[in-house]
Amino acid sequence: MFDPFEDIRRMHKEMDRMFRDFFSVDKQLLPWKNKQEFANFRQPSCDVNEGRNKVMVEIEIPGVKKEDIQLHVRDDVIEVKAERKQNIKIEKKGFFRQERIHSGFYRAIPLPAKIDVDNTTAEYKNGILRIEAPKKERLIERGKRIAIK
């Protein structure tokens, strides 16, 4: 069946992908380097809050099991990848239907401050991934007066 709006939807999807790639974090530095791998993944909504001593991130990833979420944290970027795979098979007398559904979420989130990767914690509950990361302490550079000879 001919759909006159199919070309418009395809162009809209391609424009969204181009803008997402243009404004996203440099993917060459992140663990998953193949950009095309995430072309069909949705970008989850997230909130980033910077407190005095920590950075808190909440990411909405509905319908995903905790085991299917991969989280990579660097001192200035949090990267989340979640995949859903589902096989549907219906067999009845004179009828057979089989579907394979593969979808997911992907997002690289730049952080407002450097964080302590070793003490970062994450919790997934009711479709929301909460990440709490303490900020790195800024080292105060102490100067020393040098006598000129």
- Overall pLDDT: 79
Spatial separation of the terminal alpha carbons: 88 Å
Percentage of residues in strands: 35-45%
CATH architecture of the domain at 40-134: Sandwich
- Percent helix: 10-25%
CATH topology of the domain at 40-134: Immunoglobulin-like
Radius of gyration from the CA trace? 22 Å
Give the total of beta strands. 7
Taking the sheet with the most strands, its summary is: 4 strands, antiparallel
Looking at the structure, what is the overall shape?
flat
Number of helices: 1
* H-E string: HEEEEEEE
Uncertain runs are none
The main sheet orders its strands as 1-2-7-6
* CATH class label of the domain at 40-134: Mainly Beta
| Secondary structural class | mainly beta
List keywords for this structure.
single chain, 149 residues, mainly beta, Immunoglobulin-like, four-stranded antiparallel sheet, three-stranded antiparallel sheet, 12% helix, flat
